[in-house]
Amino acid sequence: MFAAVRAHTNIALVKYWGKKNEALILPMTGSLSLTLDAFFTDTRVAVAKDLTEDEIVMDGKRPDDRSIDKIRRFMDLVREKSGNPAYARIRTENHVPVASGLASSASGFAALAAAASKAYRLDLSAPALSRLARRGSGSASRSIDGGFVVWHKGHDDASSYAEQIDPADWDIQMIIVAVDRQRKKISSREGMRRTVATSPYYPAWVDAAESDLLKMEQAVHRHSLEDVGRIAEANALKMHAAMLAADPPLCYWEAGTMTAMQRVWALRNDGVPCFFTIDAGPNVKIICRKKDTDRIVSDLSDYFSAGALTVSGPGSGIRFREHF
Ligand code: DP6
Predict the structure, then answer these.
(1) Which of 37, 119, 233, 269 is the most exposed place for a label (fewest CB within 10 A)?
(2) H or E, element range at 9
(3) The domain spanning residue 253 has which CATH number?
């Protein structure tokens, strides 16, 4: 009645932004991501009959009430599915470089889904685990597998899951530019709700996302860094355009976000193939080849501190472990 799991985070190259079912976390569109090696979460779950509620320790302390609430609701789902009403001791450590400014809900719920389902003896297949992780946080469905992963939007709980489409065993890297390390002011959950409800560009985003996904899958299969990068950058800009048109407007960018974007464009003008993507926060993730990493990092070092730049290769899927 104990399990320990490591899960890596992922960055979407074709974004998930908007739900058609809030309770089940069914997305409006399919999405595609790259799992990253440099960022992961280790989680242990031990079922304990003596507890009167789940005991949760995150990075050595009690997390905030919002996180506790989300984790407890997720554990209730695991208890319901397993028929075992016992509570659990949950210990989780996020190995996300402090400087990266990356959120950890994708790796966090992927690790929790895998560890909890094993501790409660659910015996789930990879797609079933992805579906379970999805109930914690949509993007977590894409962190069960490594490499390039597609989350099929599906039409119900059974059909909405993610799976690997390519192991990413070719030359692709990401440089994470931490523009601001503070927790974002408007969560993805709230931001997407507002965009769906009020942005006049939201229907255009849905159309664009569907066709970007098809093009991106083909680009990944061709191992074309240029096409993957170009589609990812355009897709992120379209998502941010829909956000900007929401009421009240959602602008996750800061001055440093724009600086990083402009450096990417300038480097590209100089013949360096690099492209950016941006999520619901100010940080910028740059897609490039290994051999160009030093050149890009050295260019960015004129604008950002060395600690704000993290380089990562593709990461693997979840791993069960003996202990941490
Ligand atoms: C911009 O998965 O954090 O990173 O499902 O409400 O928990 P919830 O949202 P979340 O949203 C991620 C949004 C994104 C794009 C992406 O990862 O696809």
Answers:
(1) 269
(2) strand 2-14
(3) 3.30.70.890
